[in-house]
Amino acid sequence: MSNNVGTQRSPYSIFTGPNLGYVMEMYEQFKVSPESVEPELAEMFRSFGAPSVDEADQTQYIAATDAPAVNFGKVLAAYTLIDAIRAYGHLASDIYPLNDRPKDLSRIEPSYYGLTESDLSSMPASLFLKNPPTNVENGMDAVNYLKSLYTGKIAYEFAHVIDEEERSWIQSRIENGEVSVKLSNEDKKAMLERLTKIEGFEKFIHRTFVGAKRFSIEGLDSLVILLDELVRQSESEKMKKVLIGMAHRGRLNVLTHILNKPYEMMFAEFAGVPSDPFLPEDGSLETTRGWFGDVKYHMGALYKAPSGTERFLAYNPSHLEVVNPVVNGQTRAAQETTNQAGLPEQDMKAAYSIMIHGDAAFPGQGIVPETFNYSRVRGYKTGGSIHIIANNTIGFTTEYYDSRSTHYSSDPAKGFEVPIMHVNADSPEDVMAVAAFAFEYRQKFGKDILIDLIGYRRYGHNEMDEPLVTNPMMYHNIHKHPTARQLYGAELVNSGIISESDVEKLDADIFAMMQSAYDRVKENTSDSKKLSDETPDYVLAGFPEKIETGVEQERLERMNEELLTYPEDFTVFSKLDRILKRREEPFKGKGKIDWAHAEQLAFGSILQDGKPIRITGQDVQRGTFAHRHLVLHDEKTGEEFVPLHHISGSNASFVAYNSPLTEFAVVGYEFGYNLEKDQALSIWEAQYGDFANMAQVMFDQFISSSHSKWGQQSGMVILLPHAYEGQGPEHSSARLERYLQLCAENNWTVANISSAANYFHVLRRQAKMLGTDVERPLVIVSPKSLLRHPLVGAEPSDLANGHFQTVLEQPTTGQEPKKVKKVLLASGKMAIDLAETVKDGKGFEHLHIVRVEQLYPFPSEKIADIVSRFPNVEELVWVQEEPKNMGSWSFALEYLQEIAEGKKVSYVGRIHRASPSEGSGDAHKIAQQRIIDEALKK
Fold first, then answer.
1. What pLDDT, in 10s, does the model give residues 42-78?
2. pTM for the complete prediction?
3. HSE-up (13 A, CA, CB side) for residue 361
4. Contact 174/487 with Cβ under 8 angstroms?
5. Among 440, 512, 750, 920, which residue's Cβ finds the most Cβ atoms within 10 Å?
6. What count of Cα atoms within 13 Å lies in the side-chain half-sphere of residue 586?
7. What pairs with residue 721 in β-bridges?
């Protein structure tokens, strides 16, 4: 039987001879006066345009002299019915295992379009299907054939895909019967064994560790079958890595059966004893754990398969969907080669991500559309992710009708032209089929695709939860419903492949195998001690105080010349060209190196040292404040030129990408990129510092705590423009206090820098720490108005010599130590405002100004040494722009009290406020001047 079924044919192909002539004549009349043509014909012309029929089509029909009269309305109605089956068949499909949703058959019934079986039987099948199967002879056969494909246990939605090639390819695969699998009897037996292990694992834990939370997979057992098939396809394509992101439900089963984490390790974790003794000795499995740890259903693992394809399950907190961009970033990093100058080389078929979503979380969490939105953006695309909704048809206790405003939980993906397949989780062979189809689509079109795996949740939200309290109707139904293993076992028994006793024996044997694994745990860990949650010494030790980061001045000057050299046929915008040419002057003894200039020289030297750089954020190429200009644009052609791609001695890639207007997903992406490529300097810059509020979960759950929880180190850099310049609450504060509140155990560095040289050195220090035990994220509160300020600028010698200084002293104050009565401590712009006012220090002999460049780890010893030089100091004053309940005051206070040793510790700044800053520029100036005056007074 031929299954070579293509897309639908033109309706005009049925008309020949006089009928065709009549249709063509009516079309000419329609163009002049549409209302003068029969309504059915007019509708056909509107839908299909001008009549055209090729000779090959005409030969399939009767001779012109014998052509019967054609009812144009019936033909058009039949076409509409066929299209409706393709578009709306999913509404009538058998995709709900509990059979608890009504099927909408109305739009796929002939009677809805005024058609009878006789009408359809009188039309040839070839009118609707090109080369139809041999048993599909007429229109009625075609309707029934298409219904069997579009209303079974797999349902399809792809009409929203704009690209015609994609739609035609999908339709062809469906109607050729290619979304299916043919399993031998041995394959079917293996499938049953796999399902028995999946279910048996959950049952064993349920019986052995009564009341333990595991967020079981039961009701969606075939999720593992789906992943099995994706892994098989990946290995057949010799992919390097498959990266999986998922929340907690079903995670333990995926760890066990996809990542091959031994049963003994899992049972040891449930028993509360160390699991490391049961790690495979061949090194195929890698797991990490922080000293403070996390619950077992948040942990991940890396499995190195004998095929060479690695499988990675990302570590993830309980914030459900937040791991999606992290996994995407890791995937991009796994696809890229970064050991040469210029752009990284990306192989999008080297790795890909699988994202497993919850049915309530997918439409409910904003991170999902954020991640979809950049899936085809050049700086973030990975050649398509395969998305799976692990659809329990319920949230915690929330039914679908209280969970969303859409028909399906998958509907948000339609806006991004993502094809969707819904599949009944109780039909494992169909689940295999959609997995293979999804992988083929991803490989061919390089786009995301979504599988809505519809099942149920056998127990409550966790295994001690009683769902009958809130969802009685659903759970009475579930309690009567057989498991996927039972259904498939019965199917094989009915087919004569195995006997019922074989099914029962397999279940018993697998349970015995797991019992044996648990017995080994009990035998080998009876004397095990609980793992310590003490912070390791190497973490408490921090990093070396002085990491030399200077770069020879000759090397800097040569690099600077190269950065200002462009191709002969490249025309830089004249005004910008003049601005950039000023960067030659500091090396000629004129002017200073400003913030952006120091940054670019730091980047160049880091690339020469072999460390790749990736910087992203909104408008980072130019810089929010028109200061950076990492990517130049030809004024005449718009062509891009990146000077950092053309410096001598560079052996690492560099990219600067303007990101979508997204913070949450982009921050997660960059964190993931750095995790996978720990030698890469990954930088995210907020357009304004407060915009990072939108990514707070990423800072809380990943960047600040991943080392402590999961043993994952990151060296990501976060740049947060911050300072009070009268631009209102949302363009002033980076909410520095929030990052300081998260400081502990040397988990990251937080700095508010007031020196371009210090910025240069801190970037180079960060790059030197990448991939080492002392690697940690770096949060920099970066300037706005200070970007070009003379007091912030640096001499070339400042970059050539030294290292990052956690504390800077104002050189014009403290010249007469015995006269100093108070020491002012400030950071960032506040320190520069004070320095501008004191100028040469005359009239301010009573004070000394100390710029605290690094807020965490707090430089207590250095500040104490400075204070000790002034024998008559009576007061330490913390000066800040932010309100008293914000900024760094509360964080610094405890350290200052220790340093003060009884001296007065005071605060100067704004009072307690609900909002970060004034909304009026004039009010700001008054408040700022008051702070300066109060701080400097005797």
1. 877 877 778 765 544 444 433 333 444 557 788 889 9
2. 0.92
3. 23
4. no
5. 750
6. 24
7. 782
